[in-house]
Design a protein that fits this description.
Blueprint: E1 2-7, H1 15-25, E2 29-33, H2 44-49, E3 52-57, E4 65-70, E5 75-78, E6 92-97, E7 100-106, H3 116-137, E8 142-147, H4 171-181, E9 186-187, H5 188-192, E10 218-222, H6 224-227, E11 230-235, E12 251-255
Parallel strand pairs: 1-2, 7-8
Antiparallel strand pairs: 1-12, 2-4, 3-4, 5-6, 6-7, 8-10, 9-10, 11-12
Domain Endonuclease/exonuclease/phosphatase: 4-248
EC number: 3.1.11.2
Enzyme class: hydrolase
């Protein structure tokens, strides 16, 4: 079973890129983030023509998350992260797919920091931690996939001081990530490549993709049962180098199930 996560950075603008990648790799489940499309603008017809069922939570201009399933219909279980009934940002969706509970996550960026956007980021990650704990305790096999907007350690960002003030690498952000992962979740990409610099995001600025000046922001967290089934993981880096590409590359894992 191949699962992928891809911050598409505007699904309609980059639909051709998405469809090309889907045709090439045919993942069984895909979590998408940053749709940048309101609910009625999701390109369902094109997605279905590519062989995928879909559930999504759109939002005009920003945010938006989706889960696609190849030759199947995801069964949506939740379209909002619990814990704040006034939070109107479309950043979380959850569905049952092929016997696995899958969440597509688009955590807040948090810049500029300090300030209200950074406070919201930390509060959102704490809500995610509480919900993830509840999911894990349910006993279901769970995958939490998406753009967490955290580069967890120094090896997850290219050697530089230019990001020192950025919310993605602040001590508070990294502490929130460590608390979320704890001892019960497995960071799949890092588990498979424990010491390797692997990036999933390259800014459009200053030829950072060409220089491989990237960050690892897109992650899979797995419950223990699924971690035991992990056989492979990787980043489709070349997708980032295509014309009109997202600034993220797809990340994928293979499970023996």
């Amino acid at each position: 079973m191949r699962l992928a996560t891809f911050n598409i950075n505007n699904i309609n603008k980059r639909l051709e890129n998405l469809l090309q990648w889907l045709g090439e790799t045919q993942p069984d489940v895909v979590c998408l983030q940053e749709l940048k499309a309101e609910q009625t603008a999701f390109p369902l017809q094109a997605i279905e023509a590519a062989g995928y069922g879909a559930v999504w939570k759109g939002q005009r201009t920003w945010n938006g998350v989706a889960i696609l399933a190849r030759n199947a219909e995801p069964v949506m279980t939740r379209d909002q992260l619990p814990g704040d009934k006034d939070d109107a940002q479309s950043r979380y969706i959850e569905a049952a797919v092929r016997g696995v509970l899958v969440a597509s996550i688009y955590a807040p960026n948090g810049n500029p920091q300090p300030g209200p956007k950074f406070d919201y980021k930390l509060q959102w990650l704490e809500r995610l931690h509480r919900h993830a704990t509840a999911l894990r305790k349910s006993g279901a096999p769970v995958v939490l996939a998406g753009d967490y907007n955290v580069a967890p350690t120094a090896i997850d960002i290219y050697p530089t001081r230019s990001w020192d003030d950025d919310a993605l690498i602040q001590p508070e952000s990294r502490a929130a990530w460590r608390k979320l992962v704890g001892r019960s979740w497995t960071d799949a990409l890092r588990a498979h490549y424990p010491d390797q610099r692997i990036y999933t995001f390259w800014s459009y600025l200053r030829n950072r993709y060409e220089r491989d000046s990237g960050l690892r922001l897109d992650h899979f967290l797995l419950t223990a049962d699924l971690a035991g089934q992990l056989t492979d993981a990787g980043v489709d880096r070349e997708v980032r180098g295509r014309p009109e590409a997202s600034d993220h590359a797809p990340v994928w894992i293979e499970l023996d199930r």
